[in-house]
Amino acid sequence: MKRPWTPPILLVLCGLVVAAGPFREGDPGIGAAVVAAFAVLAALNSPLIRPRSISASEAAQRSERDGRPVVYWRPGCAYCLRLRLRLGRGARRLHWVDIWRDPDGAAAVRAANGGDETVPTVVVSGRPYVNPDPAWVRDQLSSSA
């Protein structure tokens, strides 16, 4: 299992190392821009942006009870981030499963996608949908409420 803060911390450290050159050469503007770019990348890969994950079995049980979709995702996936950001606050109501932390979740995604770990895979009423439109997911979430 990966530590959730490791990638953002490494990005910030790399940014500081890369920015050290321009700072030493007397160009603080470029150094600050490099640090800012790496800080944005770190923020996008931080647990602050990522949803709180649960196990695939727990997500399935919760979805059965409340009818809300299950989203299988992985850190670093631009499509998963797009889905999360476009859903806004509604994203918190979904059941999120990180396939890198949950082998059962990864197996469920492979089973739904012919052996590929393509994410985001959204399961609604037991049926998987690969990289669906965020507006469609929002509609599914509204109809389950």
UniProtKB/TrEMBL annotation:
Coiled coil: none
Domain Glutaredoxin, residue spans: 70-127
Record Pfam families: Glutaredoxin
Domain of life: Bacteria
Name recorded for this polypeptide: Glutaredoxin
Organism per entry: Streptomyces murinus
Top-level taxonomy: Bacteria, Bacillati, Actinomycetota, Actinomycetes, Kitasatosporales
